[in-house]
Design goal:
Strand order of the largest sheet: 1-2
Strand content: under 5%
Largest sheet: 2 strands, antiparallel
CATH topology of the largest domain: MetI-like fold
Helix content: over 70%
Number of helices: 14
CATH architecture of the largest domain: Orthogonal Bundle
Order of helices and strands: HHEEHHHHHHHHHHHH
Length: 283
Protein backbone atom coordinates (compact mmCIF):
# COMPACT_ATOMS: atom_id res chain seq x y z
CA UNK A 1 0.00 0.00 0.00
CA UNK A 2 2.89 2.33 0.76
CA UNK A 3 4.18 1.91 -2.77
CA UNK A 4 0.89 3.09 -4.23
CA UNK A 5 0.81 6.07 -1.87
CA UNK A 6 4.32 7.05 -3.00
CA UNK A 7 3.55 6.77 -6.72
CA UNK A 8 3.09 10.55 -7.23
CA UNK A 9 6.43 11.22 -5.56
CA UNK A 10 8.11 8.51 -7.63
CA UNK A 11 6.63 10.02 -10.78
CA UNK A 12 8.20 13.38 -9.95
CA UNK A 13 11.55 11.74 -9.16
CA UNK A 14 11.59 9.54 -12.26
CA UNK A 15 12.91 12.19 -14.74
CA UNK A 16 15.73 13.19 -12.39
CA UNK A 17 16.56 9.52 -11.77
CA UNK A 18 16.62 8.80 -15.51
CA UNK A 19 18.88 11.79 -16.19
CA UNK A 20 21.20 10.72 -13.37
CA UNK A 21 21.39 7.21 -14.78
CA UNK A 22 22.26 8.51 -18.24
CA UNK A 23 24.96 10.97 -17.17
CA UNK A 24 26.41 9.03 -14.22
CA UNK A 25 25.54 5.34 -14.01
CA UNK A 26 26.03 4.44 -17.67
CA UNK A 27 29.42 6.23 -18.02
CA UNK A 28 30.59 4.57 -14.80
CA UNK A 29 29.67 1.11 -16.08
CA UNK A 30 31.31 1.87 -19.41
CA UNK A 31 34.53 2.98 -17.70
CA UNK A 32 34.70 -0.32 -15.82
CA UNK A 33 34.23 -2.08 -19.17
CA UNK A 34 37.06 -0.05 -20.72
CA UNK A 35 39.39 -1.14 -17.92
CA UNK A 36 39.11 -4.72 -19.16
CA UNK A 37 40.12 -3.74 -22.70
CA UNK A 38 43.26 -2.70 -24.48
CA UNK A 39 41.70 0.16 -26.43
CA UNK A 40 43.49 3.04 -28.10
CA UNK A 41 42.26 5.46 -30.76
CA UNK A 42 45.84 5.81 -31.99
CA UNK A 43 45.87 2.10 -32.97
CA UNK A 44 42.20 1.85 -33.81
CA UNK A 45 41.85 -1.67 -32.49
CA UNK A 46 40.48 -3.03 -29.22
CA UNK A 47 41.13 -6.36 -27.55
CA UNK A 48 40.15 -7.94 -24.26
CA UNK A 49 42.91 -7.36 -21.72
CA UNK A 50 41.41 -8.58 -18.46
CA UNK A 51 43.33 -7.07 -15.56
CA UNK A 52 46.40 -6.35 -17.67
CA UNK A 53 45.87 -2.58 -17.31
CA UNK A 54 46.04 -2.85 -13.52
CA UNK A 55 49.11 -5.07 -13.75
CA UNK A 56 50.76 -2.46 -15.98
CA UNK A 57 49.76 0.28 -13.55
CA UNK A 58 51.35 -1.62 -10.66
CA UNK A 59 54.72 -1.52 -12.43
CA UNK A 60 54.36 2.04 -13.74
CA UNK A 61 56.82 4.33 -11.95
CA UNK A 62 55.05 7.39 -13.30
CA UNK A 63 51.80 6.24 -11.68
CA UNK A 64 53.49 5.86 -8.29
CA UNK A 65 55.11 9.26 -8.69
CA UNK A 66 51.70 10.79 -9.43
CA UNK A 67 50.22 8.98 -6.43
CA UNK A 68 52.97 10.36 -4.18
CA UNK A 69 52.45 13.89 -5.51
CA UNK A 70 48.71 13.60 -4.96
CA UNK A 71 49.07 12.23 -1.44
CA UNK A 72 51.63 14.90 -0.52
CA UNK A 73 49.49 17.69 -1.94
CA UNK A 74 46.40 16.39 -0.12
CA UNK A 75 48.06 15.81 3.26
CA UNK A 76 49.92 19.11 3.45
CA UNK A 77 47.17 21.32 2.02
CA UNK A 78 44.34 19.81 4.07
CA UNK A 79 46.37 19.94 7.31
CA UNK A 80 47.34 23.57 6.71
CA UNK A 81 43.81 24.58 5.72
CA UNK A 82 42.33 22.94 8.79
CA UNK A 83 44.81 24.55 11.19
CA UNK A 84 44.54 28.01 9.62
CA UNK A 85 40.77 27.73 9.21
CA UNK A 86 40.23 26.92 12.89
CA UNK A 87 42.61 29.70 13.99
CA UNK A 88 40.91 32.31 11.78
CA UNK A 89 37.43 31.18 12.84
CA UNK A 90 38.29 31.46 16.54
CA UNK A 91 39.75 34.92 15.90
CA UNK A 92 36.73 36.10 13.92
CA UNK A 93 34.35 34.71 16.54
CA UNK A 94 35.42 37.45 18.94
CA UNK A 95 33.95 40.94 18.97
CA UNK A 96 36.19 43.72 17.63
CA UNK A 97 35.78 46.79 15.37
CA UNK A 98 35.59 45.96 11.67
CA UNK A 99 34.73 42.32 12.27
CA UNK A 100 32.11 42.15 9.51
CA UNK A 101 34.38 43.79 6.95
CA UNK A 102 37.26 41.43 7.79
CA UNK A 103 34.95 38.43 7.39
CA UNK A 104 33.99 39.62 3.92
CA UNK A 105 37.61 40.22 2.90
CA UNK A 106 38.71 36.75 4.05
CA UNK A 107 36.03 35.15 1.88
CA UNK A 108 37.35 36.76 -1.33
CA UNK A 109 39.91 34.04 -2.24
CA UNK A 110 37.23 31.36 -2.02
CA UNK A 111 34.90 33.37 -4.28
CA UNK A 112 37.47 33.67 -7.07
CA UNK A 113 37.28 30.82 -9.65
CA UNK A 114 40.13 28.33 -9.30
CA UNK A 115 41.47 28.84 -12.83
CA UNK A 116 41.56 32.61 -12.33
CA UNK A 117 43.33 32.18 -9.00
CA UNK A 118 45.88 29.80 -10.52
CA UNK A 119 46.63 32.22 -13.36
CA UNK A 120 47.02 35.07 -10.88
CA UNK A 121 49.41 33.05 -8.73
CA UNK A 122 51.31 31.96 -11.82
CA UNK A 123 52.09 35.64 -12.47
CA UNK A 124 53.13 36.21 -8.87
CA UNK A 125 55.38 33.14 -9.00
CA UNK A 126 57.06 34.29 -12.23
CA UNK A 127 60.83 34.06 -11.86
CA UNK A 128 61.52 37.26 -13.84
CA UNK A 129 58.83 39.76 -12.79
CA UNK A 130 56.85 37.94 -10.09
CA UNK A 131 55.74 39.59 -6.87
CA UNK A 132 57.33 37.03 -4.53
CA UNK A 133 60.85 37.35 -5.93
CA UNK A 134 60.49 41.13 -5.85
CA UNK A 135 59.42 41.18 -2.18
CA UNK A 136 62.01 38.62 -1.11
CA UNK A 137 64.78 40.08 -3.23
CA UNK A 138 65.47 36.51 -4.39
CA UNK A 139 65.84 34.71 -7.69
CA UNK A 140 63.75 31.58 -7.11
CA UNK A 141 62.24 29.62 -9.98
CA UNK A 142 59.06 28.77 -8.09
CA UNK A 143 57.28 26.82 -10.84
CA UNK A 144 60.32 25.67 -12.80
CA UNK A 145 62.15 23.89 -10.00
CA UNK A 146 61.06 20.40 -8.84
CA UNK A 147 61.99 21.34 -5.29
CA UNK A 148 59.60 24.33 -5.22
CA UNK A 149 56.82 23.64 -7.73
CA UNK A 150 54.62 21.27 -5.73
CA UNK A 151 54.95 23.34 -2.56
CA UNK A 152 54.04 26.45 -4.56
CA UNK A 153 50.86 24.68 -5.70
CA UNK A 154 50.09 23.71 -2.10
CA UNK A 155 50.52 27.31 -0.95
CA UNK A 156 48.15 28.53 -3.64
CA UNK A 157 45.53 25.91 -2.69
CA UNK A 158 45.80 26.80 1.00
CA UNK A 159 45.22 30.48 0.17
CA UNK A 160 42.27 29.58 -2.01
CA UNK A 161 40.44 27.11 0.24
CA UNK A 162 41.17 28.17 3.83
CA UNK A 163 38.21 30.63 3.74
CA UNK A 164 35.89 27.68 3.02
CA UNK A 165 37.13 25.90 6.15
CA UNK A 166 36.92 29.13 8.15
CA UNK A 167 33.31 29.67 7.13
CA UNK A 168 32.26 26.16 8.22
CA UNK A 169 34.13 26.38 11.52
CA UNK A 170 32.54 29.77 12.27
CA UNK A 171 29.14 28.13 11.78
CA UNK A 172 30.18 25.41 14.20
CA UNK A 173 31.36 27.93 16.79
CA UNK A 174 28.02 29.72 16.60
CA UNK A 175 26.32 26.49 17.69
CA UNK A 176 28.35 26.03 20.90
CA UNK A 177 26.29 27.14 23.93
CA UNK A 178 27.72 30.16 25.73
CA UNK A 179 26.90 28.51 29.07
CA UNK A 180 29.76 26.05 28.54
CA UNK A 181 32.24 28.91 28.25
CA UNK A 182 30.82 30.66 31.32
CA UNK A 183 31.08 27.47 33.39
CA UNK A 184 34.68 26.94 32.26
CA UNK A 185 35.64 30.53 33.20
CA UNK A 186 33.99 30.12 36.61
CA UNK A 187 36.13 27.02 37.17
CA UNK A 188 39.22 29.12 36.41
CA UNK A 189 40.09 27.60 33.02
CA UNK A 190 42.48 29.54 30.81
CA UNK A 191 41.67 30.41 27.20
CA UNK A 192 43.88 27.56 25.98
CA UNK A 193 42.17 25.08 28.33
CA UNK A 194 38.76 26.29 27.19
CA UNK A 195 39.77 25.74 23.59
CA UNK A 196 41.13 22.24 24.29
CA UNK A 197 38.41 21.04 26.65
CA UNK A 198 35.33 22.81 25.30
CA UNK A 199 35.72 24.26 21.81
CA UNK A 200 37.74 21.51 20.13
CA UNK A 201 35.62 18.55 21.40
CA UNK A 202 32.43 20.33 20.34
CA UNK A 203 33.89 21.01 16.88
CA UNK A 204 35.33 17.51 16.31
CA UNK A 205 32.35 16.05 14.35
CA UNK A 206 32.30 19.14 12.12
CA UNK A 207 36.07 18.96 11.61
CA UNK A 208 35.77 15.36 10.46
CA UNK A 209 33.13 16.41 7.91
CA UNK A 210 35.44 19.18 6.69
CA UNK A 211 38.25 16.62 6.41
CA UNK A 212 36.04 14.44 4.22
CA UNK A 213 35.13 17.27 1.85
CA UNK A 214 38.63 18.71 1.62
CA UNK A 215 40.38 15.35 1.25
CA UNK A 216 38.09 14.30 -1.59
CA UNK A 217 38.49 17.66 -3.31
CA UNK A 218 42.27 17.81 -2.86
CA UNK A 219 42.85 14.23 -4.00
CA UNK A 220 41.02 14.98 -7.24
CA UNK A 221 42.93 18.22 -7.84
CA UNK A 222 43.37 19.04 -11.50
CA UNK A 223 42.63 22.60 -12.61
CA UNK A 224 44.84 24.49 -10.16
CA UNK A 225 48.00 22.46 -10.83
CA UNK A 226 47.29 22.08 -14.54
CA UNK A 227 47.12 25.86 -14.96
CA UNK A 228 50.15 26.50 -12.76
CA UNK A 229 52.58 23.88 -14.08
CA UNK A 230 50.77 21.43 -16.36
CA UNK A 231 52.26 18.66 -14.22
CA UNK A 232 55.87 19.77 -14.69
CA UNK A 233 58.70 20.29 -14.33
CA UNK A 234 59.81 16.70 -14.93
CA UNK A 235 56.43 15.44 -13.67
CA UNK A 236 57.21 16.78 -10.19
CA UNK A 237 53.67 18.19 -9.83
CA UNK A 238 51.83 15.58 -11.88
CA UNK A 239 48.87 14.29 -9.88
CA UNK A 240 46.76 11.23 -10.62
CA UNK A 241 44.06 13.32 -12.27
CA UNK A 242 46.56 15.06 -14.54
CA UNK A 243 48.25 11.75 -15.37
CA UNK A 244 44.90 10.16 -16.24
CA UNK A 245 44.02 13.17 -18.40
CA UNK A 246 47.30 12.91 -20.33
CA UNK A 247 46.84 9.19 -20.91
CA UNK A 248 43.23 9.56 -22.03
CA UNK A 249 43.43 12.67 -24.19
CA UNK A 250 47.06 12.90 -25.29
CA UNK A 251 48.07 9.26 -25.83
CA UNK A 252 44.43 8.14 -26.39
CA UNK A 253 44.94 4.96 -24.36
CA UNK A 254 41.41 4.64 -23.07
CA UNK A 255 41.82 1.30 -21.31
CA UNK A 256 44.85 2.25 -19.23
CA UNK A 257 43.60 5.79 -18.66
CA UNK A 258 40.32 4.43 -17.31
CA UNK A 259 42.23 2.17 -14.94
CA UNK A 260 44.16 5.14 -13.55
CA UNK A 261 40.95 7.18 -13.24
CA UNK A 262 39.13 4.43 -11.38
CA UNK A 263 42.11 4.06 -9.04
CA UNK A 264 41.50 7.66 -7.96
CA UNK A 265 37.84 6.84 -7.38
CA UNK A 266 38.72 3.76 -5.31
CA UNK A 267 41.33 5.51 -3.16
CA UNK A 268 38.97 8.40 -2.44
CA UNK A 269 36.26 5.89 -1.57
CA UNK A 270 38.50 4.09 0.93
CA UNK A 271 39.56 7.36 2.55
CA UNK A 272 35.91 8.42 2.79
CA UNK A 273 34.94 5.15 4.48
CA UNK A 274 37.73 5.69 7.02
CA UNK A 275 36.53 9.21 7.75
CA UNK A 276 32.89 8.12 8.05
CA UNK A 277 33.86 5.51 10.65
CA UNK A 278 35.85 8.17 12.47
CA UNK A 279 32.83 10.47 12.36
CA UNK A 280 30.63 7.77 13.92
CA UNK A 281 33.07 7.41 16.78
CA UNK A 282 33.20 11.13 17.46
CA UNK A 283 29.44 11.75 17.07
Amino acid sequence: MTLFKDRPALAFLAPAGAALAVVTVYPLIYVFWLILQNRSLAVGEASFAGFHNYAAMWGDERFWNALYNTAYFTAVSVAAELALGVALAVLLDRAFPGKSALRAVIMIPWAIPTVVSARMWECMYNADFGLFNYLLGADINWLGSPAWALNAAVFMDVWKTTPFVTLLVMAGLAGIPEDLYRAARVDGASQWMIFRRVTLPMLTPLLVVILIFRTIDSFRVFDAIYVLTGGGPANSTETLSIYAYKILFQTLRFGYGSAVSVSVFMIVGLVTVFYVRLLRRTA
